[in-house]
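Lab notebook, bench 4. Still working through the backlog of constructs that have no structural model yet. Next entry is a single chain of 190 residues. Request: give me the structure tokens for it.
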Amino acid sequence: MVCEMLNAIRVSLFRRVCVIAVIVCLTAASLFNSHLSTVSAHSASVNSSIPANLQVPAHERLVLQATVKQGVQVYRCTAPGYWSLLGPTALLQGTHGELIVHSFGPRWQGSDGSVITAQSIASLPQLSSIPWQLYKVNSHSGHTGLLSHINYVQLLNTTNGVSTIFCNTAADTSLMTVPYSATYMFWQPQ
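Model written out:
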């Protein structure tokens, strides 16, 4: 009789533990799905506030947002007396402290050694700053890491970086740098 009681208690206890385990699993799954929905919703809301020609395809998701920590646009004096853009030299910092070097090419290199190059596929001129851009990544190299799966990069919210001064090709033989700030959005497949 004692054995039967102990057995009944064990079965009852086992059922309670199972019920608690199921509740914990369902709660964890719900939280995980709500986190994924939040990321997807954030990606969708970010993309919807951007002009149509600069939006990434719907199957991409935002994985990194970075701002210019220190950056300049580099120009060279060319005939007939205008500064011609060579490209940026910038250190970008992600929202979680990730560091990325952005340089001529355009090229981005993560602090983990991952590298991407890209080509501008859309542009939106700005009145007094460098244009907003949508870049399509055309190569991945270096170490596997932060940038390894990036397909698109958006250059947004630009400030400054534009040369408005004429130059003299005989006198202006050095490069000119113009500070700028911007937000970079890095996208990869879902």
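Notes after review: The longest helix spans residues 2-48. The first strand starts at residue 60 and ends at 78. Flag for follow-up if needed.
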